[in-house]
């Protein structure tokens, strides 16, 4: 039984960028960049792709990657991850988005670090310093947490609200520290299995942020800081930006 299993949900029918996990980045499918990035993380005992699409499954087969077909009606990547957990036992499951080709081992280090504190840590995620231009950007999700690292809230709004900086009209130079949430998660097995039994929560539906379901139902979600941002591919405009970063990192 692997201690830590990396799961890459890879749904082809993306709303904003259809077929994006198979879209080429520097001549290679995006999913290939993501899988290879995950495989470079020594903390992961195994990496598996969870998909509902035969094209994605074929790409996995051709490259010798572990793959599990999941129900196409599952509503989220976390539900696909849970489907994997029902068939493959592990102590900790790491959710790696299929559109995060800039994943680094340092991200996995940060995700796994809080579990050493004890069994009270049920799930984890990561944050990085929010750039000034993203403070008011609703597509950059912000997070605030308690002094022990437990998440208090996630929002597309600017949290915390720096009252004095708003009055002064210069939000970016206010006293508050803003943290951008990165869409990577790790779960102990019981927490992941419980997730699938929970109804979509009111805050989750309002903000369109799945992690709020965990908070509203009292699961202990801890947040760890990292120095490295990631750049997800959500729109056509993101592709050249990510390609430039990949070229810079790998010299391709």
Would you give an account of this structure?
- With 252 residues, this protein is an alpha/beta fold.
- The chain has 2 domains: 1-101 and 238-251, Alpha-Beta Complex (Spore Coat Polysaccharide Biosynthesis Protein SpsA, Chain A); 104-183 and 190-229, Spore Coat Polysaccharide Biosynthesis Protein SpsA, Chain A (Alpha-Beta Complex).
- It has helices spanning 30-39, 54-63, 77-87, 105-112, 163-168, 189-195, 202-207, 212-216, 238-250; strands at residues 4-10, 24-25, 28-29, 46-51, 66-69, 92-95, 123-129, 142-145, 151-155, 179-188, 221-225.
- A 7-stranded mixed beta sheet has the order 5-4-1-6-10-7-11, sandwiched between helices. A two-stranded antiparallel ribbon has the order 2-3. The protein has a two-stranded antiparallel sheet with strand order 8-9.
- α2 links the parallel β4 and β5.
- The model has no long low-confidence stretch (mean pLDDT 91).
């Amino acid at each position: 039984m692997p201690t830590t299993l990396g799961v890459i949900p890879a749904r082809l029918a993306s709303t904003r960028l259809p077929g994006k996990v198979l879209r080429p980045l520097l001549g290679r499918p995006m999913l290939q960049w993501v899988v290879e990035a995950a495989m470079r993380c020594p903390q992961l005992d195994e990496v598996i792709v969870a998909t509902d699409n035969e094209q994605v499954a074929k790409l996995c087969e051709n490259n010798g990657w572990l793959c599990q077909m999941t129900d196409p009606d599952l509503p989220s990547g976390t539900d696909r991850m849970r489907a994997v957990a029902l068939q493959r036992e592990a102590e900790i499951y790491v959710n790696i988005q299929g559109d995060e080709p800039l994943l680094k081992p340092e991200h996995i280090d940060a995700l796994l670090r809080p579990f050493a504190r004890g069994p009270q840590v049920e799930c984890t995620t990561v944050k990085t310093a929010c750039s000034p231009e993203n403070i008011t950007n609703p597509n950059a999700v912000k997070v605030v947490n308690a002094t022990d690292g437990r998440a208090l809230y996630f929002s597309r709004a600017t949290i915390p609200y720096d009252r004095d900086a708003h009055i002064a009209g210069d939000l970016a130079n206010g006293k508050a520290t803003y943290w951008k949430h990165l869409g990577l998660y790790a779960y102990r097995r019981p927490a992941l299995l419980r997730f699938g039994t929970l109804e979509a929560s009111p805050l989750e539906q309002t903000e369109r942020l799945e992690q709020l379901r965990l908070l509203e139902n009292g699961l202990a979600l801890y947040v760890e800081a990292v120095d490295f941002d990631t750049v997800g591919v959500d729109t056509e405009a993101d592709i050249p930006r990510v390609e430039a970063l990949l070229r810079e990192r790998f010299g391709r």
